[in-house]
């Protein structure tokens, strides 16, 4: 072999599917085709870019394969929402005598029940006037999965999308409904304050991506409301994560999400005045029989709205707590607290705009109210369609004009100061060595 | 300007986007804006105000021979008149009398937040002070946008390279991050001149992206960037917990990425208690 052939063989030595000879040829080709003015100065960059161009192709291909499997799995799961799983065909092997063991047929999802869904497309269109945006595909996936959710539980009467809570590692889409059977483990435990029915008029479900399975959140409990008011935390996106911070939150993120929804509803669930009517005995609230939506110009004033979300007392409860004092009289706590079905919306907490601004006289214009207390909460109403809606998209914490400080731990309890039981005085004996001791030792 | 300046994809992922009215009028305003000095122009975000909101767009200046990093310039308009004006200020930082925890925008850029101070002349007892211009809401807006943009100008690694003339330029061959890289916060860099380090012009030889752009962890404490992939891992969304309202998306394997800020402009000072 000549020296030339030896050298060429060395250059052609395969290194991870390429070789130096081809690389130099490619670089020179790049120089000739691109003809940079300062080819000598930028030679390293040219070489690097040729190399990177070859490498990235391989890496990308590998990734696509793994990703294709993910997409396949996800799409199969999604297709269950609109189609029942096909019965697996029995595959006969070559001999034709015995069928191979067919895979276990998948349990079909319950039939969809779409009549309980409120007109979500109309709601989404109204939300767009407030700048709340969802990809049309996502909203359709949510509707499909909600219809299946309703199909699984006949006691669900209505369902709507409440909004979206953003988290650190995952987000929650939140659905709000009435009815819905309690799951196991949600019953009131002994020794735990029972959940109030008025605070749990609505049931909430969450899912982590459009089309994903819905998980029912348990009942709202007073202690969760009390604690959620005092802590300020990002959600993680995992319902079973513990909620850190002080004071210690009773329960996992599942209960925390429910408490946040309640706190947002307390202030941000608002309806045009007169939409709801409280029954004569003041024991229930229902949609008023006669209601006419005010004009958009009137809706732009927060005084035309009223909050209908449950309001919580300083005890975290909707109703006053009645106890007996030492003399046997019934005392209700907190003092003066009454169950509030509806109350005026606070004008200073809302910013109102007409949409569209450029055509305020449009017949189907919307009034959009944006909450200043909870960034991400909106109320939208249209006079033409007579429809109104609330939505929330955000991280689930209120805006504060002061920096957050965790509450101080409670004061130490006082030592018992009563004189009745007095500790015995310490016996102090003179420890100096005396005669007695010496005698003992001698014995 | 083409519709690519307004990329609704990130809005759908973040859950917040412009209303159809805002989108229409802003994209129309962008078409009449003189962009001859610009490489590209994109919608940056929206800052809420009491009476009107501000829409902000950011343009990337064309690279000049002597530049190393491309300059960025901002425009803003309020949602009352949709008239794009340059967002410039003579103030380097926010006026100390404006409280960052309680500040709220009105929507009128001319609002004087801190009145002007007239120059006083030297007299026997006190030294004279120079005249100070009034600090208007436009100045505050410019400072807030600069702060947020400086901390959140996220780009995927490799989207920008140092070109043969040692200038930071768009990588036309960028094919996106791989699926695994895209879910790693260290694959993202801040597209701005690093706060320290030698100028790109003065460094010889080959430069990796990390050598001329800082990683995004430089402006946020650990855990303050939220990186999430959708179930198919075709889109990765990054959110800033320091500036809630900022979202960024990238589709791995493609050159598509973009970001959006929608909020009140306030920084989350309570982060330490929240994660």
Outline the secondary-structure elements.
The complex is a heterodimer of chains A (443) and B (275).
Chain A: H1 3-11, H2 20-34, H3 43-82, H4 120-128, H5 136-152, E1 158-165, E2 172-178, E3 202-207, E4 215-216, H6 222-230, H7 253-268, E5 270-272, E6 276-278, E7 285-287, H8 296-299, E8 305-307, E9 321-324, E10 330-333, E11 343-344, E12 350-355, E13 366-371, E14 377-382, E15 388-394, H9 435-442
Parallel strand pairs in A: 1-15
Antiparallel strand pairs in A: 1-2, 2-3, 3-4, 5-8, 6-7, 8-11, 9-10, 12-13, 13-14, 14-15
Helix pairs in contact in A: 2-3, 6-7
Chain B: H1 8-14, H2 20-32, E1 38-47, E2 54-61, E3 72-78, E4 85-86, E5 112-114, E6 135-136, H3 137-152, E7 154-156, E8 160-162, E9 168-170, H4 179-182, E10 188-190, H5 209-212, E11 214-215, E12 225-229, E13 236-240, E14 246-250, E15 257-263, H6 271-274
Parallel strand pairs in B: 1-15
Antiparallel strand pairs in B: 1-2, 2-3, 3-4, 5-6, 7-10, 8-9, 10-11, 12-13, 13-14, 14-15
Family (chain B): Belongs to the flagellar radial spoke RSP9 family.
Main location (chain B): other
Subcellular location (chain B): Cell projection, Kinocilium; Cytoplasm, Cytoskeleton, Flagellum axoneme
Task: Give the N-terminus to C-terminus distance of chain A in angstroms.
Answer: 112 Å
- Widest beta sheet: strand line-up of chain B: 4-3-2-1-15-14-13-12
How many alpha or pi helices of chain B?
6
What's the overall geometry of chain B?
globular
Secondary structure tally: strands of chain B: 15
Proportion of residues in extended strands of chain A:
15-25%
* Shape label of chain A: extended
How would you sum up the major sheet of chain B? 8 strands, mixed
Short description:
The complex is a heterodimer of chains A (443) and B (275). With 443 residues, chain A is an alpha+beta fold. Chain A is built from 9 helices and 15 strands.
Protein model, in words:
The complex is a heterodimer of chains A (443) and B (275). Chain A is an alpha+beta fold. Chain A has 2 domains: 3-80, no CATH class; 114-184 and 193-394, no CATH class. Chain A is 29% helix and 16% strand. Chain A has 9 helices and 15 strands. Chain A has helices spanning 3-11, 20-34, 43-82, 120-128, 136-152, 222-230, 253-268, 296-299, 435-442, and strands at 158-165, 172-178, 202-207, 215-216, 270-272, 276-278, 285-287, 305-307, 321-324, 330-333, 343-344, 350-355, 366-371, 377-382, 388-394. In chain A, the strands form 4 sheets. Chain A has an 8-stranded mixed β-sheet, sandwiched between helices. In chain A, strands 5-8-11 form a 3-stranded antiparallel β-sheet. In chain A, a hairpin with a 5-residue loop joins strand 13 (366-371) and strand 14 (377-382). In chain A, helix 6 crosses helix 7. Chain A is extended. The N and C termini of chain A lie far apart (112 Å). The model of chain A is unreliable at 96-100 (pLDDT under 50). With 275 residues, chain B is of the alpha+beta class. Chain B has one domain (3-268). In chain B, 17% of the residues lie in helices and 25% in strands. Chain B has 6 helices and 15 strands. Chain B has helices at 8-14, 20-32, 137-152, 179-182, 209-212, 271-274; strands at 38-47, 54-61, 72-78, 85-86, 112-114, 135-136, 154-156, 160-162, 168-170, 188-190, 214-215, 225-229, 236-240, 246-250, 257-263. In chain B, the strands form 4 sheets. Chain B has an 8-stranded mixed β-sheet with strand order 4-3-2-1-15-14-13-12, with helices on both faces. Chain B has a 3-stranded antiparallel β-sheet with strand order 7-10-11. In chain B, a hairpin with a 6-residue loop joins strand 1 (38-47) and strand 2. Chain B is globular and about 70 Å long. Chains A and B meet through helix 3 of A and helix 1 and helix 2 of B.
């Amino acid at each position: 072999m000549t020296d030339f052939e030896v050298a060429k063989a060395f250059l052609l030595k395969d290194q991870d599917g390429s070789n130096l000879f081809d690389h130099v040829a490619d670089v020179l080709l790049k120089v000739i085709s691109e003809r940079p003015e300062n080819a000598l100065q930028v030679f390293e960059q040219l070489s690097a870019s040729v190399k990177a161009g070859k490498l990235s192709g391989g890496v990308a291909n590998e990734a696509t394969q793994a990703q294709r499997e993910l997409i396949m799995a996800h799409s199969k799961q999604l297709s269950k929402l609109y189609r029942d799983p096909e019965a697996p065909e029995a595959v006969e092997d070559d001999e034709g005598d015995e069928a191979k063991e067919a895979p276990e047929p998948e349990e079909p999802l319950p039939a969809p029940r779409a009549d309980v869904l409120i007109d979500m497309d109309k709601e989404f269109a109204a939300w767009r006037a407030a700048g709340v945006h969802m990809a049309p595909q996502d909203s359709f996936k949510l509707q499909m999965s909600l219809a299946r959710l309703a199909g699984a539980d006949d006691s669900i009467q209505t369902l709507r999308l409440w909004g979206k809570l953003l988290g650190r590692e995952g987000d929650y889409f939140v659905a709000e409904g009435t009815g819905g059977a309690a799951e196991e483990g949600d019953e009131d435990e002994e020794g735990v304050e029972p959940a109030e029915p008025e605070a749990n008029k609505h049931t909430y479900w969450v899912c982590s991506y459009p089309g994903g399975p819905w998980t029912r959140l348990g009942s709202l409990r007073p202690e969760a409301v009390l604690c959620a008011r005092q802590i300020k935390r990002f959600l993680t996106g995992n319902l079973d994560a513990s909620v850190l911070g002080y004071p210690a939150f009773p329960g996992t993120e599942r209960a925390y999400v429910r408490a946040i929804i309640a706190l947002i509803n307390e202030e941000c669930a608002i309806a045009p005045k007169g939409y709801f009517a409280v029954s004569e005995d003041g024991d229930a609230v229902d949609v008023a029989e006669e209601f006419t939506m005010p004009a958009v110009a009137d809706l732009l004033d927060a005084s035309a709205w009223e909050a209908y979300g449950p309001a919580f007392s300083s005890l975290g409860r909707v109703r006053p707590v009645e106890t007996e004092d030492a003399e046997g009289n019934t005392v209700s706590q907190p003092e003066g607290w009454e169950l509030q079905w509806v109350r005026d919306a606070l004008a200073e907490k809302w910013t109102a705009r007409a949409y569209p601004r450029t055509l305020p006289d449009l017949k189907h214009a919307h009034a959009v109210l944006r909450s200043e207390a909870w960034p991400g909460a909106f109320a939208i109403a249209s006079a033409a369609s007579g429809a109104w809606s609330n939505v929330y998209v955000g991280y689930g914490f209120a805006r504060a004009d002061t920096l957050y400080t965790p509450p101080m731990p409670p004061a130490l309890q006082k030592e018992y100061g009563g004189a009745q039981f007095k500790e015995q005085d310490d016996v102090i004996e003179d420890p100096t060595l005396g005669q007695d001791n010496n005698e003992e030792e001698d014995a | 300007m083409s519709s690519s300046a307004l990329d609704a994809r990130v809005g759908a992922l973040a859950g917040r986007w412009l209303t159809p009215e805002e989108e229409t009028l802003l994209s129309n305003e962008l078409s009449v804006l003189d962009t001859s000095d610009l490489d590209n122009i994109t919608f940056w975000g929206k800052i809420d105000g009491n009476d009107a909101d501000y829409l902000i767009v950011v343009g990337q200046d064309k690279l000049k021979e002597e530049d190393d990093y491309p300059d960025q310039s901002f425009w803003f308009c309020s949602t009352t008149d949709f008239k794009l004006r340059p967002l410039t200020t003579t103030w380097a930082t926010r006026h100390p009398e404006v409280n960052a925890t309680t500040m709220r925008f009105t929507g009128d850029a001319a609002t004087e937040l801190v009145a002007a101070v007239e120059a006083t002349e030297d007299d026997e007892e006190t030294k004279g002070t120079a005249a100070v211009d009034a600090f208007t809401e436009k100045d505050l807006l410019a400072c807030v946008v600069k702060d947020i943009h400086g901390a959140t100008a996220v780009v995927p690694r490799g989207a920008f390279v140092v070109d043969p003339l040692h200038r930071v330029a768009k990588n036309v061959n960028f094919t996106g991050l791989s699926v695994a890289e895209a879910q790693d916060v260290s694959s993202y860099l801040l597209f701005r001149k690093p706060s320290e380090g030698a100028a790109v012009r003065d460094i010889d030889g080959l430069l990796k992206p990390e050598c001329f752009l800082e990683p995004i962890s430089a402006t946020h404490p650990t855990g303050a960037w939220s990186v999430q992939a959708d179930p198919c891992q075709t889109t990765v969304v990054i959110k800033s917990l320091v500036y809630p309202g900022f979202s960024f998306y990238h589709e791995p394997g493609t050159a598509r990425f973009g970001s959006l800020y929608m909020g009140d402009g306030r920084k989350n000072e309570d982060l330490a208690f929240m994660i």
